[in-house]
Amino acid sequence: MRSYIPNYQLTTARSLADVLSLLANEPGVWRPFAGGTDLMVLLEAGKLDHRNYVNIWPLAELRGIEVSKAHVTLGALTTYTDVQAHEVLRSEFPMLCQAASETGGLAIQNRGTLGGNIVNASPAADSPPALLAYDAEIELVSTQGSRWLPYQGFHTGYKQMLMRPDELLTRIRLPRHTTGASHYYRKVGTRKAQAISKVCLAAAGRTNNGRIEDVRIVLGSVAPIVVRCTQTENALRGQQPDAATTKSAQASLLREISPIDDIRSTANYRLQVASNLLADFVRTLNS
Ligand SMILES: Cc1cc2nc3c(=O)[nH]c(=O)nc-3n(C[C@H](O)[C@H](O)[C@H](O)COP(=O)(O)OP(=O)(O)OC[C@H]3O[C@@H](n4cnc5c(N)ncnc54)[C@H](O)[C@@H]3O)c2cc1C
Fold first, then answer.
1. CB-CB contact of 133 with 58 (8 Å)
2. Which of 3, 150, 209, 285 is the most exposed place for a label (fewest CB within 10 A)?
3. Alpha helices of 38-79 — where are they, by DSSP H?
């Protein structure tokens, strides 16, 4: 079925196979339209350059949250409302649930999808920091087959990613290794709701015999892509969560991120807030 807005074409897919053959037969011509919450804003603003979209919203193959012994696997069309309602996600992946609860308002949470948030590739998006901190993997599917890749490294530059035009993001997989971890998620924006972040920190870690281990630090809105701060993690790993460790980790963090001045904030404010949030996270490892 095809429907038309002047100058744009939206076709609705009947099955995953339909979408994949459309993407494969006319490479680069068609793009997926999921919840439409990013695309419709661009359309309204007259900034939607691409013209042909395939509506994937009705596809049951891209929905559902499956729990196995080792993983929780989420369909690309999982909405923020679905995330918040899921018991295992709430108990084992609280940062993802918090990110979902702080994304837009209820209407956006009902319609916006994790797949759309990832592929829209905004460095200020709220779920990617949590997904990276949880070592997410993503599945890309085309008529050639399926491939799983670590989410880390998927975004290669501003709005650049390792996905071919014939591929669809179908699933997101989270390894269930979070038991006993401290989870810290803070989105700093102009106000509590309906704000784009100035800085967002997602961090997880634990202490064993007083030493920090299994630590992951991810920051949003401080670089062209969401950044996993591995040098800062190295500065924390094996150390006691004390003032000296915090100071050296903060120095490392400031070297790893490169925020800019923009309409929402300044580079200096972002550096200061990122550093403060890191110190706050390290304090949680003490308690
Ligand atoms: C009022 C408002 C408030 C918002 N607040 C926030 C917020 O607080 N935090 C935040 O992070 N975002 C926010 N957003 C942005 C948006 O809601 C999210 O990025 C959302 O997750 C996008 O999902 P979607 O399904 O609507 O994507 P769509 O608009 O359908 O698509 C976005 C992009 O992803 C591509 N795409 C979608 N699904 C797939 C797939 N499965 N495979 C391949 N490509 C795909 C599309 O082709 C398009 O390029 C807000 C938007 C609005 C309008």
1. no
2. 209
3. 39-44
Q: Ligand 1: which of 117, 199, 226 to mutate, most ligand atoms within 8 Å of CB?
A: 117
For 15, list phi and psi in degrees, rounded to 5: -155, 165
Q: Which atom of ligand 1 is nearest to the CA of 114?
A: 21
Query: DSSP letter at 219?
Result: E
Predicted confidence band at 4 (pLDDT cuts at 50, 70, 90)? low
User: 202 near 95, Cβ under 8 Å?
Assistant: yes
Q: Cite the beta strand spans of 162-210 per DSSP E.
A: 168-175, 182-188, 199-208
CB atoms within 10 A of CB 29: 14
**20, 38, 151: residue to mutate for ligand 1 pocket, most atoms within 8 A of CB:** 38
Q: Is the pTM of this model over 0.90?
A: yes
* CB distance 117 to ligand 1 below 6 Å: yes
